[in-house]
Amino acid sequence: MLSTLLTATQTNPYLLSNHKNDSKKSSALVNVHYQENNYQALLEHIQTGQDHGWILFLAPPGKPNTQFFQNAGIDKSRVLMIDSNKVRDNLSLLSTLLKSNNYCTVVTWVNELTETTRLTIEADAKSTNTSCFIYCKQ
């Protein structure tokens, strides 16, 4: 998952600043990516962001190890995860988490995302100024 990108960024330190945005839709706070293994924008956001609050990974498809976060320059004490086997409805929980105002960034993976749902998520994120990264299969 994320550890694959870390290896690539260590061999090419310019990879994060040169990433292409053609696989995503984004607003100021919500970033939707359709290439599930492209975490460059997420890492750039976390590494260069001014907010040092909690980063929540909601139902990731794998579990990055703590060494990955250290190597990426991310304080592992800022990272929280909710395992996918504990989540029934990612999008409903995502909405609740965004409105809670407890996180600076929330990251999740979904099978599909409708335009209506995306607009709702954008409104939820805007209400608390929380960044959101959604990795979508469709």
What does this 3D model show about the protein?
- The protein has a single domain, classed as P-loop containing nucleotide triphosphate hydrolases (Rossmann fold).
- Helix content is 36%, strand content 20%.
- It has a 6-stranded mixed β-sheet with strand order 1-2-6-5-3-4.
- It is globular, with a radius of gyration of 14 Å.
Low-confidence stretches: 3-23
CATH architecture: 3-Layer(aba) Sandwich
What is the ordering of alpha helices and beta strands?
HEEHEHEHEHE
Helix/strand-derived class?
Answer: alpha/beta
Report how far the terminal alpha carbons are from each other.
18 Å
CATH topology: Rossmann fold
Please summarize the sheet with the most strands. 6 strands, mixed
Q: What is the CATH homology-level superfamily? A: P-loop containing nucleotide triphosphate hydrolases
> What level of helicity do the residues show?
25-40%
Which value, in Å, is the CA radius of gyration?
14 Å
